[in-house]
Amino acid sequence: MSVTLTPSFLQPFEINGRKTGPKDINDMASGGKTYTPPDFEVIRRARRFDRGGDKQGVIYFVGYGDGPVKIGFTTNLPFRLQSLQTACPYEMDLLAQRLGTPGDEWKYHERFRSAHIRGEWFKRTAALLKEVTRINTTLTRLSTPLQESAHG
């Protein structure tokens, strides 16, 4: 015996006393034209770029061993590093840090998109490590190493 379940959002329902379903809603929303779902990835990236506006904080690059690198933004680096270390079974290393905005973080994510793994994690590529070296040698470093923030 097989049972087919239809999700509730596909079930017919009533609007103003008229029985309708998803196709009718799509027709109503699009003026009778074929409905094309939005590209949610583009919307997500655009919202992330806009989120926080020009709020100043820290762009950080953190990783462990030869593993992936997380590129993130925070306004409280010691707290963020401590929470990342708590969630990671490996000793984390703060590879680089620089002043920046959420928009700057987004630019790094776009720049290293080909090395993207998931979320804010990226493969440890030569290009990414070159940027880490550039940050550490040419930009003013902040004085908050991971070891201080995790233990003090």
Model description:
By secondary structure, this protein is an alpha+beta fold. The protein has a domain at 54-151: 3-Layer(aba) Sandwich (GIY-YIG endonuclease). Helices cover 39% and strands 21% of the residues. It contains 6 helices and 7 strands, in the order ββααββαβαββαα. It has a 5-stranded antiparallel beta sheet, sandwiched between helices. A two-stranded antiparallel ribbon has the order 1-2. A hairpin with a 2-residue loop joins strand 1 (13-15) and strand 2 (18-20). The longest helix is centred in the last third of the chain and has 13 residues, at 126-138. The protein is globular and about 65 Å long. The N and C termini lie far apart (62 Å).
Annotate the secondary structure layout.
Elements: E1 13-15, E2 18-20, H1 22-29, H2 40-50, E3 57-63, E4 69-74, H3 77-87, E5 93-100, H4 102-111, E6 116-118, E7 121-122, H5 126-138, H6 146-151
Antiparallel strand pairs: 1-2, 3-4, 3-5, 4-7, 6-7
Q: Can you give me a brief rundown of this structure?
A:
The protein has 152 residues and is α+β, with helices and mostly antiparallel strands. It is built from six helices and seven strands; from the N terminus they run ββααββαβαββαα.
List keywords for this structure.
152 residues, GIY-YIG endonuclease, five-stranded antiparallel beta sheet, two-stranded antiparallel sheet, disordered C terminus
